[in-house]
Amino acid sequence: MSVLDSKVPEGPLKDKWTNYKDKINLVNPANKRSIDIIVVGTGLAGGSAAATLAELGYNVKAFCYQDSPRRAHSIAAQGGINAAKNYQGDGDSTFRLFYDTVKGGDYRSREANVYRLAEVSANIIDQCVAQGVPFARDYGGLLDNRSFGGVLVSRTFYAKGQTGQQLLLGAYSAMNRQIARGKIEMHNRHEMLDVVKIDGKARGIIARNLVTGEIERHSAHAVVIATGGYGNVYFLSTNAMGSNATAAWKIHKKGAFFANPCYTQIHPTCIPRSGDYQSKLTLMSESLRNDGRIWVPKKMEDVLAIREGRKKPTDLSEEERDYYLERRYPAFGNLVPRDVASRAAKERCDAGYGVNATGEAVYLDFQSAIERYGNEQAKLHGLTNPSKEKITELGEEIVRAKYGNLFQMYEKIVDENPYKTPMMIYPATHYTMGGIWVDYNLMTTVEGLYCIGEANFSDHGANRLGASALMQGLADGYFILPYTIGDYLSHEIRTGKIPTDTPEFDEAEKAVKDRINAFINNKGTHSVDYFHKKLGKVMWDKCGMSRNATDLKKAISEIKEIREEFYKSVKVPGRADEMNPELEKAGRVADFLELGELFAKDALMREESCGGHFREESVELEGEQKGEAKRNDAEFAFVAAWEYKGEPSDAVLHKEELEFKDIELKQRSYK
Amino acid sequence: MNLTLKIWRQNGSQDKGRMVDYQVSDISKDMSFLEMMDVLNEQIINKGEEPVAFDHDCREGICGMCSMHINGEAHGPDKGITTCQLHMRSFKDGDTITIEPFRAKAFPVIKDLVVDRSSFERIQQAGGYISVNTSGNTQDANAIPIDKHAADKAMDAATCIGCGACVASCKNASAMLFVGAKVSQYALLPQGQVEAVDRVKNMVAQMDLEGFGNCTNTGACEVECPKGISLENIARLNREYFKANVKG
Amino acid sequence: MSGFFNSSIGRKYAMALSAFFLMIFIVQHFAINILSVFNPDAFNEISHFMGTNPLVQFGLQPILLFGVIFHFVMGFILEIRNRNARSVKYVRNNGAANATWMSRNMIWSGGFILIFLVIHFIDFWFPEINTKFIQGDMSGLLPNGDYRYYEELTHKFVPIWRVALYCVGFVFLSLHLLHGFSSAFQSVGANNKYTRGLKGFGKAYAILIPLGFIFIALFHHFNH
């Protein structure tokens, strides 16, 4: 038997969670008062967990690196949140949401976890509405839904283009209530730099006060990590500048297994890079693909003419354009899933057809949508023989109503009017499905150490559906962890306060301080960003949208080299005992430099194409699906959980075999 | 572009602080303002000096972390955006750009351009929530229909990102737009009615305690707000506060 | 409600309420003064009534005085508080980018109005109080038997310096009202679909009333 025990309860899929909850151990209210829990990260998962645990009566200490919990990057999610409410009466159900999520994840997620997620999803909406989250409503005063990410039902709830912010503010307000009651001790501008284990159990953390530089010890009976994903390993991503993997990587080094690091989601509709100075990429909602047509010029001479400014995209006739998604995937066209759309864009740009100066951009054209809507409107208004200008005007109105804010955002960044000239887009790293391995209780392989939200690996398999990240974060934090952690803590009621003056804390603190001093005292020559950009380039070129064994092997050795060079010649100005953003970055990049290597190692091991992970060696060789991703269920239907053994190259693989009892495994087809 | 930057440097909260001049060259017009700051910092680091500390995170105009006062305006000369969305094409070659932290007694400077906005946190802790348990035992989300217009207005108020530009722009360093937006969101929804009296009283009391100035209705906050929060919300706050005091 | 008036919002309410009162008073004052242009007799009559009616003199006049003093004192208190809310000033502040000059300089327009009011009191109110309550002459008549009010009024507007001073005073009143009128409504929470119309009305009020006062001063200067 594998060392991994997923602890999935017995019984039929539908009843697992209910039965489990009924039998779980509880902590009585009086005892909760003497139990401390640390929550690191205050996004949707961490914020909702901290609020709920405090409400249950535990003493919570919450930590975030931002100046307020409300600024966690969950705030940037635009589209919406899925929930199997079936308010639209269009046939949605818990099972259907479960099915869509497992299928969308390309059958690489754990059935029982996903079913539970779908089950609690409806409750999230009730909860958020009660908290005053202003979801969009129809004229009857009831909640509005939209369809999202190519699924067959409308189950996505939204709050303008700000769903993430509104949900986070809901969780944040619940936190504020508990902070005011004294049940949450909030530590803003703090970064967790290590976890402290005593007798094999997580008992506290070492954190740095980012304002004073002070190294602090905090103890607790359990530690919850909710620090998000590691997309910034690519340097450029849609993540926030501060988003980092340090907490996750530190617990990995202390014994928590890291699962499926190679599963990353590359989002197809981001604003392209404009130059080497670029610090981050901006996502535009996927909904744009509902009306935009994606193309590049057919002829190389046109590509060059456009790049040199001799021609404009609007000068090209229909015949001179290559609508490559419509050409390759006639059934789904521009609406193919994220990974397929991303790879197709990369394929065209690699072939030299990229349309901007960096050669990494394709067009997203709304001209035909504007014409189509314009003609419809002309008919509705009863106009006979409307002029071309009138049609354009009417069409633009409709497009503005649907995507006005996105068009405006695009124009602000790129300085081009997307109503008049096609938008330029390119894929960018957006979400990481991989993360810390957790069991059904969301506990890692370290006792008393939990991991929730994007930071864990659990629910999205090899690919995540649109509007499901918010759902998972809140499900974990509001409704799952608060139950499962009680089961563990029921054995801790006699433990008493955990002292911080123990050798374990001494040792952990010393290690943290030594590392910080090493950075400060290093007489280096290059800034932290120099190395981060180098790492990002390797990751993007060799572990990006499509991967092959040769490049991955190269990536492993190159990352190792960069890491060695980093420790030798990184320059960190300033002192350790003050606010020092460069020092913060140095620590984070050091961890990315290890994680990146494990990432490549995992990608190399997984010799199949699944979800966001595309191996060039694993494609269909013939038939209708020729050239498309080929999954290998016989050999790779497992979760790859890596155990830390020193260098990333020494990491040991543990497999959690995935069983699908309620779902039939199918090949994806979008032809 | 070549630019002269006049930047506020202050080494910690106890330091007096001063303006320091910097030169940057070869700035692309397509850079964002913060990317220009990155270039400057890279240059400062390579010279062996301490880079300029400034707050930033999402760099897409939603987290509310970035906070500079640029050429005399919060988030710079363009309207309806945060500093991270400001692009260098808004400036000309040879320009001198003055960069200062947000100034308010309730926002003390931590370092250089970084300020402490925890006063906003405390205002929200004083009542910026609905006291409903997160256990999930709430009624169905569609049990109470809400007038679409009220819901839309609540949403408009809720778009506040808590960046503090309203305070920074206000000649009185008043936080009324922020507090108004928060109070309005809940005042407009049926869920917020139960605690309406205590909420507005406690939040205003905390706001006064933090040392923000008084609103004199100049409207600067509305103009500089990256999310376009309307002055209507301040009027609603005034009404709610009056009502609450009449009720007791 | 005592807590209410100690809060920042409560004080704004108080400012707004005193402002409403003063704005109504100004209309009343203007209505009487303009009579001096069209109908000196009526002006004399009503002036005498206002100056001698006990209800006006001992009821409304103290309230008015309190309103004026309260508005000024509270205005200065709030200004000091507001200045304290930003202890370190901006090196560069582009206030014109987001707010009108009027809204940013209420303390200056208000200050000049105060100076004007002091002169105005010296010119009219103190002599009036002296005549009526110290000298005890409640007749309102000149030695020749005519009412003295119109005569005194026109006499005051002979020197050009005083006319100029009054005109400047009214310009500041106009600037003060250009922001103050709509601001008072906003302070008491009135911001709704009527706000646009109200703002237009406020602008008209802020320009026409002071302009009318200027007209009266100039009229009397050039006609006597």
Task: Name the poorly predicted regions of chain C.
Answer: none
Question: Percent of residues of chain C in beta strands?
Answer: under 5%
The biggest chain-chain interface is:
A-B, 79 and 76 residues
Number of domains of chain C: 1
Secondary structure tally: strands of chain C: 0
* Topology-level CATH name of the domain at 268-429 in chain A: Flavocytochrome C3, Chain A, domain 1
CATH class of chain C: Mainly Alpha
CATH class of the domain at 268-429 in chain A: Alpha Beta
What spatial order of strands do you see in the largest sheet of chain A?
5-2-1-9-17
Helix segment tally of chain A: 18
- Which fold name is given in CATH as the topology of chain C? 3 helical TM bundles of succinate and fumarate reductases
Write a compact overview of the structure shown:
By secondary structure, chain B is an alpha+beta fold. Chain B has helices at residues 33-46, 118-125, 148-158, 165-169, 176-187, 196-209, 220-224, 232-247; strands at residues 3-9, 18-24, 68-70, 73-74, 96-101, 109-111, 114-115.
